Amino acid sequence: MYHYLKTDMTSGQGNEPPWTVGESRSITGPPVLCQVGYHASPTIFDALQYAPGPILCEVELGGKILTDTDKSVGQERRLIAAVNVDRELRLFACDCTERVLPLFEAVYPDDKRPKEAIRIARLFAQGKATQQELDTAHAAAEDAGANVWANVRATAGANAWATELIWQKEHLEALLLPVLQAAIPQTR
User: Fold this and answer.
1) Distance (Å, rounded) from C-alpha 55 to C-alpha 48?
2) Which of 52, 71, 124, 127 pairs as cysteine with 134 (C-beta 3.0–4.6 A)?
């Protein structure tokens, strides 16, 4: 099971102290999905939807566990491994955007702002661009695509976007799973 934490190893909800690898925590009452308990997801992609942050964690749930299609909640959670995947998440976003960029360029062939933003974002992920350069490129790309991407998505059709989502899930796992596995203690 997977979960994400913020860079300071805290969760996005509540006021809990930072987690440490190997630590277990529990609640006394019954868990309730999306409300009470320790959550996790069966895939790296699903976990990102619920607990955004750059620290990817492998976790184990225990006690009473409730399961939905893309998340579970338990009375207990143990943090098995944690790794900062900020760089990989940035590159993943670039990869996803590049895949749909031709749809934008077909409508706006002379507008290079989104392509430039991807280039700068890749450089930033590699430590070769500043935060200011990234912010400037991001603002320009947002200005270029204010309402365009919704139209591009509608034009592409539901089947194309369903196929794209499958690719994104597989690609994210291919990028992040090896990084996480390298962080898992060998004593497990």
Assistant:
1) 10
2) 124
Q: For residues 112 and 94, is the Cβ–Cβ distance under 8 A?
A: no
- In the block, which residue shows the tokens 């976003």? 93
Q: Containing H/E element for 60? A: strand 55-67
Residue 84 has phi, psi (to 5 degrees) of: -80, 120
Closest CA to 74 of 109, 112, 42, 106: 42
CB distance 30 to 64 below 8 Å: yes
Listed range (31-35, 97-101, 122-126) with the worst mean pLDDT: 97-101
Check residue 188 and give its pLDDT.
46
Measured in degrees and rounded to the nearest 5, phi and psi for residue 38 equal -105, 120
Where does residue 125 fall: left (phi above 0), alpha (psi -120 to 50 degrees), or beta otherwise? alpha
Distance (Å, whole) CA 180 – CA 57: 7
Place of tokens 């933003």: 117
Q: What is the mean pLDDT of the chain?
A: 88
